[in-house]
Design brief:
The complex is a heterodimer of chains A (about 350) and B (about 130). Chain A has about 350 residues and is an alpha+beta fold. Chain A is built from 7 helices and 10 strands. In chain A, β9 and β10 form a beta hairpin. The chains are: A alpha+beta (about 350), B mainly beta (about 130).
């Protein structure tokens, strides 16, 4: 327990200032009360239904009746599952809960839907990466954040905001012409219209940028990758621009998430970075994309990709470019690195034979 | 006096590889057998570092006095499991992945004690090819 409570900072971590058992009892009491709050009225309503008596609050409304039933059933479900979960958690260790969860995921139907394959626990599946065939090489890597989504978001904002601005502008103008202008409406409309004009300008900038900085295509000869492996890499950059600087890097990033009060914060760190290709002062013409092929090597001592609830290790290819008269752009392509496959026919070590007691 | 939990890795080495058979001995002392409610033995990994802890249990066994001879969970027992392909042990900048054998002892009045023995799950070294 901290000796001094920091007033302006939320608590970080799982430490508790009171008894964990007392906290669990309080939690179970809350969910138990919720369960009873749903059960008792529900029994009363169902009993009245069987006895064919009416409730004044329903006022012969089927909608009100079913709404009440839904709310009471939700209290039952939330309260009942909360009590069950709290009792289960109090009586079991963290290892036992994890083992039970793992046993559930071992069921074949469920294991197929898990984010990691059964043979490589906590290593991400590569299905999203290997489902797109390449033109030059075997696989085309997907981008993590496609620029098309950004353009779609900007377009949606522009349309919605300008629709509202147009309505406000029409109302204000009408009020002016009818000789009954509204001061507050006019004051409110001015910034709305200003932001709408900026949104239109920003939309056209994004559109021009996306068409000038064309798509980036990255292909790879094999997937998943393993430490010590060497692979063919193919890059194609389309567009219409003069590149001041262009670079492709292989990076490994650690991501750690932690709870601080009600906030969830994530910290990232690049633990490996290698430049695969770098060039400057060249132009890309429409219809003539810039292409580059090289070898991609995963270091022999590289850690494999890893994913858990709060911690991740991710490998990515990052393409960055700086073009004349355009802001710098960056495109990221995730890859999955698997652990080196184990030897199949491994003789048992003599030390591993069963012995008597060790002492 | 707290009970004494002893864990010993039979192979007496720190580094294992995926597919290896991990043998370990467990013994409990300094407690009467009637006081023991249950003993849980796990082979597991957990994360350490900036982020909140993640854990993954590869092998788990829970025994109560009724599960063993003479209802005594204290004597030496040997357990075994084949280690998985992942995740491998890792010491990064903000994330560490550690493997261990953990034994948790539950006693009367809701108390519990645990002990753990760390080991490293490392990548399989490359096979050296020789030509004759």
């Amino acid at each position: 327990m901290a000796r001094l409570f920091r007033v302006w900072e939320k608590k970080r971590g799982q430490r508790q200032t009171g008894s964990q058992l007392v906290g669990s009892v309080g939690e179970a009491t809350f969910f138990g009360a919720l369960f009873l709050l749903g059960l008792v009225p529900l029994i009363a309503v169902l009993a009245s239904l069987l006895l064919e008596t009416s409730w004044p609050i329903f006022n012969d409304s089927q909608f009100a009746f079913w709404l009440v039933i839904i709310v009471l059933v939700s209290f039952l479900v939330i309260g009942g599952s909360g009590v069950s979960f709290t009792v289960f958690r109090v009586g079991t260790s963290v290892e036992r809960r994890s083992a039970l969860a793992k046993r559930a995921t071992d069921i074949e139907i469920i294991s197929e839907a898990m984010p990691s394959p059964k043979e490589f626990p906590n290593v991400p599946r590569d299905a999203n990466i290997t489902n797109s065939p390449g033109v030059q090489l075997l696989y085309r890597l997907p981008m993590t954040h496609s620029p098309a989504w950004r353009l779609a978001a900007v377009t949606t904002f522009c349309v919605v905001w300008n629709s509202i601005s147009t309505i406000l502008l029409v109302k204000t103008t009408q009020a002016q012409f009818t000789g009954d202008p509204s001061f507050f409406l006019t004051i409110f409309t001015i910034p709305f219209v200003a932001i709408g004009l900026w949104a239109i300008y920003h939309f056209f900038c994004q559109l021009w940028q996306q068409t000038s900085i064309g798509p980036t295509s990255v292909e790879i000869s094999s997937h998943p990758l393993v430490p010590g492996g060497a692979y063919e890499f193919y890059l194609s950059q389309a567009g219409h621009m003069i590149m001041n600087h262009y670079q492709v890097r292989l990076i490994c990033e650690e991501q750690a998430s932690y709870n601080q009060g009600t906030d969830t914060r994530t910290e990232s760190r690049y633990v490996y970075e290698k430049c695969l290709f770098e060039d400057a002062d060249f132009s890309i013409e429409p219809g003539e994309p810039f292409v580059h092929e090289c070898e991609l090597k995963i270091p022999a001592d590289a850690i494999h990709s890893f994913q858990a609830n709060n911690n991740r290790i991710q490998w990515r290819l990052i393409v960055t470019g700086n073009a004349d008269e355009w802001p710098a752009f960056e495109r990221q392509f995730p890859i999955v690195v698997y652990p080196q496959l184990p030897r199949v026919d491994k003789p048992l070590d003599e030390e591993q034979e069963l012995d008597g007691p060790s002492d | 006096m707290d009970p004494l939990i002893s864990i010993q890795l039979v192979a007496r080495r720190e580094v294992y590889h995926p597919g290896d058979k991990l043998l370990f001995d467990v013994q409990i002392d300094a407690i009467d057998p009637e006081e023991i409610v249950a003993v849980e033995s796990s082979v597991m990994w957990y994360t350490d570092g900036k982020g909140d802890e993640d854990i993954g249990v590869h092998f788990f066994e829970r025994l109560t006095p009724l599960d063993v001879e003479k209802n005594d969970l204290r004597p030496w027992r040997q357990l075994a499991t084949v280690l998985p392909n992942s995740p491998l042990s890792y010491a990064g900048e903000i994330i560490k992945i550690r493997w261990c054998v953990r034994v948790r002892l539950f006693v009367q009045k809701g108390k519990e004690f645990y002990e753990q023995a760390l080991f490293r799950l490392a990548a399989v070294p490359p096979v050296a090819h020789s030509t004759k």
